[in-house]
Write a structure and sequence with these properties.
Order of helices and strands: HHHHEHEHEHEEHEHEHEHEHEHEE
Helix content: 40-55%
Largest sheet: 6 strands, parallel
Radius of gyration: 22 Å
Number of strands: 12
Distance between the termini: 30 Å
Structural class: alpha/beta
Strand order of the largest sheet: 2-1-3-4-5-11
Strand content: 15-25%
Number of helices: 13
């Protein structure tokens, strides 16, 4: 009987791609999908009954999800994707949330999750040595979601290429900055989040490569909290009158815009939450770069579900960075 491995080899694709075609999950190029289906038909492939029986055992697995508070609407979309994947896979999820990115608060929630008796973890947590050590010592298989972890024991990553996201924003800024020098206020969630650091790294790298004459007037950590963002943005603007450009690289959009008020400046942001969509439509935010949060959550659960059955390390899922302007803001990205 043919196997998924044989189909993948004949089609010249990964086993993960074959699995997505068979189960109609995730994005697969139409030509690739047709090629895989032709090979499946030619080999008379049928799903393995033993595998189906094993799949039923996924219901006995309990995966702990640790992520920031759902007061950040971006993470509501990730959770929504996780819940849909849970319904399809039968993998049981328990959700645990922390506020801000303080190591102490994260560790408290993380330890409570581990002590609950979960047998796997999906994590959006600060990338600090103590957090990573705690996760590794739990002996639970784990994957990182939305922001990576510096651990070779991490099974997979489901999230965007943050460095590329920073570079895309730099490229867009370069296109509109020929008539002025951008003096930039950079707003990010936390230095402790790997992805938040990578955005700034990619942003600066691309600006330098393009030869843009710019300055980073201030780099501010907001903890993705609107009140904190408003206070720190107001402070930065009062202390740095040269600021004419603001990059809201994570959350805190409402707070930032309250602080900006009626000032005329170039503002661009991340994601396409309801607030961001409204501000792009009004012209107050010139563009935003979204990152498929629903698919990040969905693919994270499906990959962990498959791993708990096959024990084969999954491929990472890299979400697309999608530029949104007034003309395409709010368009739904589907499976």
């Amino acid at each position: 009987m043919a196997t998924i491995k044989e189909i993948a080899e004949k089609a010249g694709v990964s086993r993960g791609t074959v699995d997505r075609v068979i189960h109609k999950r995730g994005r697969v190029d139409k030509d690739v999908e047709e090629r895989v289906n032709r090979i499946i038909e030619s080999l008379s492939y049928r799903p393995n009954r033993a595998g189906q029986t094993l799949a039923a055992s996924k219901k006995s697995h309990k995966t702990g999800v640790v992520m920031p508070s759902l007061s950040n609407p971006f993470f509501c979309d990730i959770k929504r994707g996780m819940e849909e994947a849970s319904d399809k896979s039968g993998l049981y999820l328990t959700f645990h949330h922390y506020t801000g990115y303080e190591e102490r608060d994260t560790l408290k929630v993380l330890n409570e999750t581990i002590d609950e008796g979960v047998d796997s973890l999906l994590l959006t947590v600060p990338d600090t040595p103590l957090v990573v050590k705690t996760v590794e010592e739990s002996m639970c298989p784990f994957g990182s979601v939305n922001s990576g972890l510096s651990s070779d024991k991490c099974l997979f990553y489901s999230g965007p290429d943050y460095r590329k996201k920073g570079m895309i924003n730099a490229g867009l800024l370069a296109l509109v900055s020929s008539s002025f020098q951008p003096n930039i206020l950079f707003l990010r969630g936390s230095e402790a989040m790997k992805g938040h650091k990578e955005i700034l790294d990619g942003f600066i790298e691309a600006l330098d490569k393009r030869g843009v004459n710019y300055t980073i007037q201030k780099d501010v950590e907001t903890n993705d909290d609107d009140e904190t963002t408003e206070f720190l943005t107001s402070k930065a603007l009062s202390e740095n009158s040269d600021i004419n450009t603001i990059f809201i690289s994570t959350s805190g959009v409402k707070g930032a815009m309250r602080a900006i008020g009626e000032r005329e400046m170039l503002v661009f942001s991340s994601d396409d939450t309801e607030d961001v969509c409204r501000l792009v439509n009004s012209g107050r935010i010139k563009w935003t770069v979204s990152q498929e949060p629903f698919l990040q959550g969905y693919n994270a659960v499906m990959k962990m579900s498959d791993y708990l059955i096959s024990h084969e390390k999954p491929e990472s899922f890299i979400a697309r960075n999608i530029v949104k302007i007034k003309e395409n803001i709010g368009e739904e990205i589907c499976l």
